[in-house]
Fold this sequence. Notes:
three-stranded antiparallel beta sheet
Amino acid sequence: MQISVKTDIFKLAQVFTISRGSRTQAEVLTVSVEGDGAKGFGECVPYARYNETLESVTAQINAFDGTWADLPDAIEAGAARNALDCAFWDHAAKKAGKRVWDLLNLPAPKPEITAYTLSLDTPEAMEAQAQKNAFRPLLKIKLGTPDDMPRLEAVRRGAPDTPIIIDANEGWTAEVYSELAPHLVGLGVKLVEQPLPAGQDDMLAEIERPLPVCADESCHDRESLPKLKGKYDVINIKLDKTGGLTEALALREAGLAQGYGVMVGCMVGSSLAMAPATILAQGAAFTDLDGPLLLAEDRDTPLTFDDQGVHAPDAALWG
């Protein structure tokens, strides 16, 4: 099997800011797996929060010389394993002349309503963003600063009727969350992601949680689950964290069995990165696969987004 990897850059439609910084483009790695008359593709987004760079993840991929079955033991959960795993799934589907969901004995994915993320900005700018996107069925707000309430109130003014979820990106303390939580409920917030830093979130088991709290940075794969007990109500499953679709599906099953709600999220990448996650998102409590909606340019055969949500990929894209 011949494996290759290259860097692709996609311009964003506008500057995208979270509590950790800003970006104007999405830098991704595209992996191909070729052999037996078929060529499969996968995409990953190396994430600095997890000590990943384009160079380090490329090196991991180039160093891999095993089979698909060797992948979980050869590469730790993360971006490199994700791109390879998804490329192997695409290759298997093309070789068999079937769709990936057929190989998994799953129904064809139906459209899933996805959140649309508003970048962190001034209250005035976020209100304008919210007003422009008030037609969307679900808005996700990037927060995680000491001055978040004016921003959230501004978004609610801009989109008075739209359901909202919040991602604090580890930016709060237990005291800040406890102070904000009642106001979040009053403003109709449906979920808050990762209010406290991973590894410093034990207080979530001791303080009141008046709205569902979702583990993002605290949840990577099935090995994460024991540490989440009593602290979180929902887990955010991202392919770049789990190391691909194979582990993501296993994490979803294990999480549901343990009583967690499921959110399916993404990094800022192209439609190729989101395509496998449309299978994962079936029936999820929350879906956040809006990466392509934040781009000014995308793959040649992009995913379809409409009033019904994000649709399953065309075979020309993936799977």
